[in-house]
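Recall that a protein's primary structure is simply its ordered list of amino acids. Everything else, from secondary elements to tertiary packing, is in principle encoded there. The following example makes that idea concrete.
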Amino acid sequence: GQSQHRLPHHTPAAGTGIYRGDRAAPSNDGTPETRTSGPPVTMESSKVLAKKELAYVPLIGWMWYFLEIVFCKRQWEEDRKNVVQSLLNLRDYPEIFWFLIHCEGTRFTEKKHQISMQVAESKGLPKLKYHLLPRTRGFALTVQCLRGVVPAVYDATLNFRNGENPTLLGTLHGKKYHADLHVRRIPMEEIPEDEMECANWLHKLYQEKDLLQDEYFKNGTYPGTPIKPPKRPWVLVNWLFWSALLLFPLFKLVANLIISGSSLILITFSLIIIVGSVGMRWMIGMTEIQKGSSYGNNEMKQNN
């Protein structure tokens, strides 16, 4: 059954999830209006297993690097040692943290789904209707390294109502999205320690998630009593304070440039703004699902 208590603020936790669009799951304080089935979700001090290419994205990737995000090349033999070391470092992390892992390894597309189900058929596994076959080795390794420190795994399934397809660009433009998030708590003791048994457990979990997704598409809601998390105004106050503090020097610079009346300076500044805006839109465009990686597109190369 579903757990109906709040997610921990004082213990580390691991989370698995599904996302099918350009944007992953929101926090309670993000732009989307979130309706939760299961315990309310808070995502402070989140760590994530992410592809190595993201570490080179200006600003965001650099920030993730210094926040000790775990990066992988998605090549098992090369990744294993680095991922193990990064996960073991988290055992001594001085603060409470979340570790997030997307077990499918890549975003859902029809082409990737077709190839993934061919792999499932070749391995004698039940076919999934709404998910890709989960990558079991990364999950098993994460559980092995964090067992004893992390008391539970929180399985999350996210959907957006009315066929909404959220994008980062839409969020920056202030578009409002309506999300339904199903969360359930799974004690670490229920997850097998043996790698093969853990893999079978994860496949069974995804078969259950597939049935849950089917029920959501039929009824427009998850089973159980929905919970709408309360808004926390402190987050908005904090954002406004730091925005005002950090943007004040920029506004002062712009004012001084306008007052100076120098056409050359104004043209140069305008060009810098235009180039920066175009560059930012280009980087945001690279996050769209149709421009995603080809990972999972190579037939029969899904190594679990």
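Residues 1-11, 18-34 have pLDDT under 50 and may be disordered. The longest strand covers residues 178-187.
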